[in-house]
From TrEMBL:
Family (UniProt): Belongs to the transpeptidase family.
Superkingdom of origin: Bacteria
Keyword Membrane in record: yes
Subcellular location: Membrane
Start and end residues of each PASTA domain: 591-651
Keyword Cytoplasm: no
Protein name: Penicillin-binding protein
Keywords assigned by UniProt, alphabetized: Membrane
InterPro entries: Beta-lactam/transpept (IPR050515), Beta-lactam/transpept-like (IPR012338), PASTA_dom (IPR005543), PBP_dimer (IPR005311), PBP_dimer_sf (IPR036138), PCN-bd_Tpept (IPR001460)
Length: 731
């Protein structure tokens, strides 16, 4: 016995010594086996990048959601547990869940039975798309119902979903992203359309992880080191889109859509000075979060589809004739019809208006006047001007799948029909680019929608897009003369644009009524309303700040209604609201005196405020006073008298009276003061949650209620005193 147990002892001792020296047992590394058993890894999920407007207001972001799981395996319930952790009665559970998620009870039972047939010891199942993106409220409701009805085994896992807080908002521009499961069962958010798809790589973040060790029961070992690799959120895409102006567009389109039920609509609002797109929308449209309303059309019509523009093209024919010195507004021609080879070109009323001047012809939108203009300047010269305006080639906007359009240039009749917008095709964004040359004194600007791309992990600006001037075919003098003529189409008694006049603002532009090619080819549609109606306009016409293109296709018109009616309703509503929102003073407000703002940084705040008040400004102090660290607007900016000037100093801030402030002013105050100011609505401030004169803690929220300009200005007309109190920032 002694020899037996002694031999056994030396055998075990030798075995332990061998393992200690080699670190192996049965050819396997013991350290690796221990690491595999006890080392754990937790995923730190990255957020998909945000899409925000020009002021940083949210358009799309990730938000918390939940994924539904049903535990099937009895192994999930430990012996002696008071309550089962698995589903005891699946039919009862399916009946409950079908009341809260979009899946029938029978389909849930089929999923359960199919899973058990494939693998009898299946631990858990999910319910596909219906069981994902569950809100917190729905999760709580399911938990409460399960507890009341005795349903067990229902669990939730925290997840992320794409959130679009503005609903149906520039949906064909923004697009949408949705959760997808790859072959390994990993679920991630993928952009499927619009900017979400184009910038999917930039928006997609990189998950992080935490490495740690646990005991056999899964509890983290004390004093164990955690190796953390932080998640990197996706990049932030900041657009040139202005949320307020985009909302004006969406609201106006909803009203017109309800009233006229057109087949299609499109609106683009741009800054002609820079090429920035402030708003872009179309109908039909859809909700990016639910995809409700999404049809077979996945194209952004502003960029990816082409149209025959109709008479809006005449403004560029006019510009070419003026630049060539071939425009004589008082010269006369015989309207009605014009024959080129065997083709007869007619005016819209077939018979014309007799012998009229070229200026009257333009105001009446005469096709024949364009034919005689081409005779004067040469049709090939005209085509070169169109190419100079950028037609026939892509603008190069930062959006995918841009169409180039086609300028027909095979024979004289094609060049003639192109002069009044028939035959040749363009994209709406090409029309915007070309019109910037007229609105911007001959400087043609490239349209763009991406302002900046920012890394939220470091606040580094990865891309910073700046206005880009294109070579223009016309001079400043020509542009100014074209604008005067465009204004006459609105102000003249015979002008086709009379409906597009704005209250308090001068406007110029050109109407268009384009024929629509038959889907089957071979000719154009005919009949009342079977046209593409449009208006390309700018205001104020002396120095345009906004350029808007409106298209309405095949509206349903009642007796006495015209195709220009829905176009005019869209244009006037959007432009009046937008111009007021941008603090562009109406012409009837009287002559406005502007003064160049001096540099007050480093000066005493008391002296600076006194000086500003003497100059006619309204200074607002941020901080306790003393030396001024920053001012807004900065030195050198020309401001209207009565404009607000922010002076930032150190210390606590006393709240001003925000009443009448524009949204941009409120955002500027928020950024300079660092206060937690929350804006509710668009337009101008009407209410504030804390009274003026209150000293607030930086972490204490202040809610400002805003009202849209149309509502605000209706009140202001009734109360002249309120109009006098409004502060306007110019420049």
């Amino acid at each position: 016995m002694f020899i037996f147990f002694g031999g056994l002892f030396f055998l075990l001792f030798g075995r332990l010594l061998s393992i200690q020296i080699t670190g192996q047992a049965e050819g396997r590394q013991m350290a690796a086996m221990a690491e595999a058993r006890y080392a754990k890894e937790a995923v730190l999920r990255a957020d998909r990048g945000k899409i925000v407007d020009r002021d940083g207001e949210l358009i799309a972001s990730d938000t918390l959601s939940y994924r539904l799981i049903a535990i099937l395996s009895e192994k999930a319930t430990e012996k002696g547990a008071k309550e089962p952790r698995h589903v005891v009665d699946f039919e009862k559970a399916a009946d409950l869940l079908s009341r809260y998620i979009p899946m029938e009870k029978e389909e849930m039972i089929r999923i359960q039975q199919s899973a058990l047939e494939r693998k009898p010891d299946t631990y858990q199942i999910e319910f596909g798309k219906a069981g994902r993106d569950i809100s917190y409220e729905t999760m709580e409701a399911i938990k409460k119902a399960a507890k009341e009805e005795g349903v067990t085994g229902i669990q939730f896992i925290e997840d992320k979903k794409r959130f679009y807080p503005n609903g149906d908002f520039a949906s064909y521009l923004i697009g949408f992203a949705m959760r997808e499961e790859d072959e390994n069962g990993n679920v991630k958010t993928v952009g499927k359309m619009g900017l979400e798809k184009t910038y999917n790589e930039e928006l997609t973040g990189t998950n992080g992880k935490v490495d740690y060790k646990t005991d056999r029961w899964g509890f983290v070992l004390p004093k164990t080191e955690k190796n953390i690799v932080a998640a990197k959120d996706g990049l932030t895409i900041q657009l040139t889109i202005d949320k307020a102006i985009q909302n004006f567009v969406e609201d106006a389109m909803n009203v017109v859509n309800e009233k006229y039920s057109p087949k299609k609509m499109l609106v683009i609002v741009a800054n002609p000075k820079t090429g920035e797109i402030y708003a872009m929308s179309q109908r039909p449209s859809f909700h990016p979060g639910t995809r409700e309303g999404l049809t077979e059309n996945w194209l952004n019509d502003a960029v990816e589809n082409t149209i025959e523009p109709g008479s809006t093209m005449k403004m560029f024919t006019l510009a070419a004739a003026i630049e060539e010195g071939k425009w004589d507004p008082l010269a006369e021609y015989q309207s009605g019809q014009y024959t080129i080879y065997d083709r007869v070109i007619r005016d819209v009323n077939k018979t014309g208006w007799g012998r009229i001047s070229f200026l009257e012809g333009f105001q009446l939108s005469s096709n024949v006047s364009m034919a005689y203009l081409l005779e004067r300047m040469g049709d090939r010269t005209f085509i070169e001007y169109l190419k100079g305006f950028g037609f026939g080639e892509r603008v190069g906007i930062d959006l995918p799948h841009e169409a180039p359009g086609i300028i027909l240039d095979v024979n004289p009749s094609e060049r003639l029909t192109t002069s009044y917008g028939q035959g040749s095709t363009v994209t709406p964004v090409q029309m915007i680019q070309a019109a910037t040359a007229i609105a911007n004194d001959g400087k043609m600007m490239k349209p763009y929608v991406i302002d900046k791309i920012i890394d939220p992990n470091t606040d580094e600006v990865i891309e910073d897009h700046q206005p880009e001037e294109r070579k223009s075919p016309i001079s400043a003098e020509t542009a100014k003369e074209v604008r005067k003529i465009l204004e006459s189409t609105v102000t003249s008694e015979r002008g086709t644009g009379r409906k597009f006049a704005l209250s308090g603002y001068s406007v110029g532009g050109k109407t268009g009524t384009a024929e629509i090619p038959k889907p089957s080819g071979g000719g154009y549609l005919s009949g009342d309303g079977n046209y593409l109606y449009s208006f390309l306009g700018m205001a104020p016409i002396e120095d345009p700040q906004l350029l808007t293109y409106v298209i309405v296709q095949q509206p349903k018109l009642k007796l006495g209604q015209y195709g220009s009616d829905p176009v005019a309703e869209l244009y006037t509503s959007i432009m009046e609201s937008s111009l007021k929102y941008l603090n562009i003073a109406p012409e009837n407000a009287g002559e406005v005196t502007t003064v160049t703002l001096p540099d007050f940084t480093g000066k005493d705040s008391g002296e600076a405020m006194s000086e500003l008040m003497e100059m006619g400004y309204d200074p607002v102090l941020i901080g306790e006073g003393g030396n001024i660290d920053h001012q807004y607007p900065q030195k050198g900016i020309k401001l209207n008298k009565g404009a607000v000037v922010f002076l930032e100093t150190k210390g606590d801030t006393v709240l001003p009276n925000f009443s009448g402030w524009s949204k941009k002013m409120a955002i500027s105050f928020k950024m300079l003061s660092g206060l937690d100011i929350r804006l509710n609505g668009d337009g101008f401030v009407t209410e504030q949650s804390l009274s003026a004169g209150t000293i607030v803690n930086p972490s204490e929220p202040i809610v400002l209620q805003l009202q849209v300009p149309s509502e605000r200005y209706k009140v202001m007309e009734e109360d002249e005193n309120e109009e006098e109190e409004e502060a306007i920032i110019g420049g």
